[in-house]
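*** Fold description ***
***
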Amino acid sequence: MDMFKDLCCSGFARRTAEELAEQYGGEQSKGLVGGLLTQLASEGGNSEATQNLLAMFTGKQQMSLEAVAGMVSESGGEQLREHATEKGLDPSLLDGVMNLVKGMKSGGGDGTDDGGSKFDPSMLLGLVAGLTKGGASGAGGGCDGFLQLLGGSGDGSSMGNIMQILEGLAKSFFNIKGKSSPAIQSWQVAGAAENANDKNFVKWALSVLMDLLFPGRKPKEVIEEGGDNDIDTGDKKDDGDVKGWFDGHPEIGKMQKDVFDDIFDTGDDDQNEDDDPSPIVPMPTDYEDNCSCLDNAAILFLNSNLLLEYRKNWRFLYSSRNHSKSLNEMMERICYKGPTILVVKDTSGNIFGCHASTSWIDTEEGWVGNGECFLFSISPKMAVFHSTGKDENFQKLSSSLLAMGGQAGCHGLELADDLASGDCNANIDTFHTIQLSQDKPFEIEHVEVWGLGAEPD
């Protein structure tokens, strides 16, 4: 079956594409669609590569792409720029995307227009397919699309450029999906709106880049040596390194797909947020207004570092903003509740905490937990500090203290019984951790705890 010819010759498809083009770009764009369909049929319809690209999209998605093609063909794509801006595409991505669009000229792939070249719709198919199809698991946008974004921004795979694209993807994801996602909207009420800080997206991007910049090294080593303080050296990574890193971070591809599916209207109608077993943003339940000190970037960071089965739902258990500030109160609310995330904010502004892999219980001076536990830092830097495997001193809880890692008098993280003060230590055997708090000991401004996944019976 010749899909291109069927699409181009179908009066219904043509009318639908024209209507979409008129909706986004006005009467003039509507008139362009017929010409573009004819151009595709006559010049690209017999191309195997073009056929393969088109086959990635459903009939409805193909119609949406015809509407986008109409926007791109008029005025160098300025209507597409307006459309993407209105949708919420971050400026750090917008210029790069438009540079790619300007390069969609037959014989003009360098982005220049010699006055005689014309728009090549098959290049648009290639761009959208790269941004929204494929990926390591087949569920996210592919690395080819990510590499195209890097090329459109002009500086290729330099660290500064990769940072900019990551930051732009994350901001665009929350800008765009925040208009429809119940999970993101719920977090806004729980505190993410009040805590919003765009600089934290830079911290998130740097945390994701750690294993590309410093392969084989622990975050503790890099941070303590200051190796992450100036990463934009101008050096570029080759495409193979970028692909291996990209495939190891499926959250990037998922965000890329979600962002550009919305821009190009190529999403799957039969899928919604509830169908994703490990979403980018978990659904918070039982929360209270402004109970959390987390913002969007911190939620993205934490959820992406959890096991897949814990990423869908977070159950609000305790917040010192909403409950009595005492360890006894917190114990009553968090014990026997399954795995948890505990977040601390000290009076110096540092934010850090721990992931407990098993239920908190009164350990009677002993220890519980396993090697899936970790400590983490959110501010001033985002990083996860995993188990060393040297001991099993993971979780300790009694009426006098809560602790993670280390030993008596020298814990990786310790909270006192009044939840007014605590202590942190970098030199412990349990975790590859840094000094999480600015001061030793530190004063606590806020504590919160979230249960992960389904509540145990």
